[in-house]
UniProtKB/TrEMBL annotation:
<feature type="binding site">
    <location>
        <position position="215"/>
    </location>
    <ligand>
        <name>L-aspartate</name>
    </ligand>
</feature>
<protein>
    <recommendedName>
        <fullName>Aspartate carbamoyltransferase</fullName>
        <ecNumber>2.1.3.2</ecNumber>
    </recommendedName>
</protein>
<feature type="binding site">
    <location>
        <position position="77"/>
    </location>
    <ligand>
        <name>L-aspartate</name>
    </ligand>
</feature>
<feature type="binding site">
    <location>
        <position position="259"/>
    </location>
    <ligand>
        <name>carbamoyl phosphate</name>
    </ligand>
</feature>
<feature type="binding site">
    <location>
        <position position="258"/>
    </location>
    <ligand>
        <name>carbamoyl phosphate</name>
    </ligand>
</feature>
<dbReference type="InterPro" id="IPR006130">
    <property type="entry name" value="Asp/Orn_carbamoylTrfase"/>
</dbReference>
<dbReference type="InterPro" id="IPR036901">
    <property type="entry name" value="Asp/Orn_carbamoylTrfase_sf"/>
</dbReference>
<dbReference type="GO" id="GO:0004070">
    <property type="term" value="F:aspartate carbamoyltransferase activity"/>
</dbReference>
<feature type="binding site">
    <location>
        <position position="133"/>
    </location>
    <ligand>
        <name>carbamoyl phosphate</name>
    </ligand>
</feature>
<comment type="similarity">
    <text>Belongs to the aspartate/ornithine carbamoyltransferase superfamily. ATCase family.</text>
</comment>
<dbReference type="Pfam" id="PF00185">
    <property type="entry name" value="OTCace"/>
</dbReference>
<comment type="pathway">
    <text>Pyrimidine metabolism; UMP biosynthesis via de novo pathway; (S)-dihydroorotate from bicarbonate: step 2/3.</text>
</comment>
<dbReference type="GO" id="GO:0006520">
    <property type="term" value="P:amino acid metabolic process"/>
</dbReference>
<feature type="binding site">
    <location>
        <position position="50"/>
    </location>
    <ligand>
        <name>carbamoyl phosphate</name>
    </ligand>
</feature>
<feature type="binding site">
    <location>
        <position position="163"/>
    </location>
    <ligand>
        <name>L-aspartate</name>
    </ligand>
</feature>
<comment type="function">
    <text>Catalyzes the condensation of carbamoyl phosphate and aspartate to form carbamoyl aspartate and inorganic phosphate, the committed step in the de novo pyrimidine nucleotide biosynthesis pathway.</text>
</comment>
<comment type="subunit">
    <text>Heterododecamer (2C3:3R2) of six catalytic PyrB chains organized as two trimers (C3), and six regulatory PyrI chains organized as three dimers (R2).</text>
</comment>
Amino acid sequence: MRNFVNLNDLTKQEIMTLITTSLAYKNGELSVPKQTRYVANLFFENSTRTASSFQMAESKLGWQQIQVNPQTSSTQKGESLSDTLKTLGAIGVDAVVLRHHVNEWYVPLIAENSPLIPQLVNAGDGSGQHPSQSLLDLMTIYENFGHFSGLKIRIVGDLSHSRVARSNAEILNRLGAQVSFAGPREWYPTDFDQYGTYQEIDTGIEALDVLMLLRVQHERLADQDNVMFSETTYHQQFGLTHERYDRLQKTAIVMHPAPVNRGVEIADELVEADKSRIFTQMANGVYARIAILASLTEDKINDISID
Ligand code: CP
């Protein structure tokens, strides 16, 4: 795979292979291949989980990390992203893991088709895609249920600003899940109708298999919307309260990509509750990212055989 920028570019078979490979790494059924490669992690937007879990995955693969800090790099002097990446390619960097606020930042770079631009891994583009988060979410769901077909999955919250929602809605629909959405109606992008249905959060909550909560992205809200926002009102109307948690079936799982606004999207004490997989998602992220990075060194995503 030359670049990893949008999970929906892959076939269902390739996605399933990435999921099963990630789980095989986690369960010790497949050893992590040691590789001599050079990688730079460029985060133009803040990150804790994605940045550190890519670093952990790279370390486990034996990749050397070349330190480039966007905040102190020559992008601050006006150097373009393209020239920054060509510079890194020229000095021998094989791959760049990059997060940027511009949607589809990777499209013009791939279109350049320059051999100087290293392999690209999208660690999040604006409100576009978050494919490595999506893979670890799929891995977590598959780890729990062993399939996607027919699972009732509701994605709740700030859908219009969430790259996690956009990545997951499309892919879960393709994999046969019954996807529904809830949250403030004004944060519902109508093009999501093609992936599932908009519902009130409480409608059919007892039958859900997965309740996926989204962070309210204050940094992407208009100033006036931030001023008007009430944490208490949001929590009561759209959050996972104790009452809603108790209505979920025993086998249901609760997910959130994090960071969590405790007491807003989810009651503080429920972040670590039995049905929550929030910290499992983070642990799974390392293995999902090992699978992604390892696949960059292959022409295609090869099926693995596990004895
Ligand atoms: N889930 C996620 O992308 O978290 P970070 O912003 O901390 O990387």
